[in-house]
Amino acid sequence: MNEHPVLGQVALGYSPMIDRHRAVTAVRLTVFPNKPDAPPRAGELLAALGGTWPADGGRVSLNIVGENLLQDLLQTELPLNMMVEVPAFMAADIAHTEALQALHSRGNTLLIKGRPLTPLPREVLPCFAYSIIDLSDERRDGQPAPGGVSRTIPHVQGEVRTLGQMTDAFSRGAIAVLGWPIDDAVVASGKSSAQPDLQAIVELINRVDRQEPVERLEAVMKNDPTMAFKLMRYINSPAFGLSVEITSFRHAIMLLGYQRLKRWLALLLASASRDANMRPVIYAAVRRGLLMEELVRETGDPERRGELFICGVFSLLDRMMKQPFAELLRSIPVPEAVRAALVDEDGPHFPYLELVRAVESASVYDIRAASDNILLAVAEVNRAVLRALAAARQLD
Prior knowledge:
The chain is α/β, with parallel strands linked by helices. It folds into two domains: 5-179, TIM Barrel (Alpha-Beta Barrel); 196-395, no CATH class. Helices cover 46% and strands 13% of the residues. Helix 2 (67-74) links the parallel strand 3 (60-64) and strand 4 (82-87). It comes from Pseudaquabacterium terrae.
């Protein structure tokens, strides 16, 4: 999967598009051509992305950071689930009017990025379904709207990094936000404010870590119908790849084994919060785990892959449990390398976490530096990103 040569010619970053209900409605994929003056062909890029976002798959918003590649993309027939972000200066250029009209007429969703310095051509304005306004360019302060078109169509707020910024954006009328609202500080409280069901999962993780008999694990699962239901749904999902349906708790536990059961419980722990504001955090945590695992798929043994998965999934648990890692990991058993990465920001797993954060930030310089630090070629990183995002879509 994803052996396309184009993956060695670009750097990829991703972030979610989040609606007012805190649900992720699309992935924003940022694409940096390694050689902006000699970019790959748009058709080659679309072929590489097709496995992760097939025509009947989820929505993806293409943020192409390279004018030549974007111009080529505007001339290409796109699947309808692929949205295109167009900088305001290109939208205002009459040279692109025909291409924009053609995409719009085919049903593709177009987003104008930034504030036009000059009015858009009359025939182009209806082509855009949304505008993207970054926080650094936000002017909605109660004053009359400035000239331009940004307030005649629904707007999406970009550069969102905290829950407060997300809430403020929606209060200003944004229909969605772009970014990762996960940078809020974790304040040491001396105790976790997590819900009881999260504590039950922690208890089961500890029992699995002690490798207690299947009968005891099965009894815990039966006492928590919600947990049992989620286990059965997960093990029978396409992501698990089984050819037969599993209907009993005992069979599921025996089939998973202790290590894979612990992996599933880590995923469940990271996704069990009832707080709607935590949905983007859960979204990030699941993809971090899958991506960190994929980064060593070709070179890492199963134990190392499992540790990196746990490290990624748990990397935002402090925000979900509202407790610093130094306190939190006293009650949750994790390998020493995972503890070092999360508590001390050190150890063999931490460079992989840094790379994942760089990909999330869509910072091409940080992506390249972090990739070099762990001796991974850009093509390997991009393949891992697309595999992780495809696997995550199956789990959603």
